[in-house]
């Protein structure tokens, strides 16, 4: 059972601004955006708390998240300008929701490794 906030969003128990969905991935706007575009991509069917819990059999999920983000960037017309994807693992990286997710940040120059506002 995925009792995280993102589990509730997957089950539509919590509202979210969903901008992308396919068979395996859900994409929705971050509630506290750190860039003009800030979308989170999560696996829908499998609950993996952190990247450190990912098994070799589940590795394809990360590829699915990245492909979803790349597709969204093309669809929204900012792929050519560029974007950043980030995954945080546990406390030192600032992970707050323990269901793996890919941050997509875009819409302005982000600075090397820096994320505005953090
Ligand atoms: P983390 O810090 O774990 O890498 O990223 C979790 C992200 O989830 C944060 O950027 C935070 O703003 C976002 N977040 C937390 N709660 C909610 C929520 O209820 N709805 C949405 N859309 N985003 C959330």
TrEMBL record:
GO molecular function terms listed in the Swiss-Prot or TrEMBL record: catalytic activity
InterPro entries recorded: Histidine_triad_CS, Histidine_triad_HIT, HIT-like, HIT-like_sf
Motif Histidine triad motif, residue numbers: 99-103
Pfam hit, one: HIT
SUPFAM superfamilies from the UniProt entry: HIT-like
Transmembrane regions: none
Annotated catalytic residues: 101
Residue ranges constituting the HIT domain according to the UniProt record: 5-115
Name the UniProt record assigns to this protein: Histidine triad (HIT) protein
Protein source organism: Pseudoxanthomonas spadix (strain BD-a59)
């Amino acid at each position: 059972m995925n009792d995280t906030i993102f589990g509730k969003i997957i089950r539509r128990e919590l509202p979210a601004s969903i901008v992308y969905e396919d068979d395996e991935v859900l994409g929705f706007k971050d509630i506290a955006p750190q860039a003009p575009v800030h979308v989170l991509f999560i696996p829908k069917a499998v609950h993996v708390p952190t990247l450190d819990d990912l098994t070799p059999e589940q590795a394809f999920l990360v590829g699915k998240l990245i492909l979803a983000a790349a597709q969204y960037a093309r669809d929204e017309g900012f792929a050519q300008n560029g974007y950043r994807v980030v995954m945080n693992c546990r406390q030192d990286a600032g992970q707050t929701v323990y269901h793996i997710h890919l941050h997509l940040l875009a819409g302005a120059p982000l600075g090397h490794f820096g994320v505005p506002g953090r």
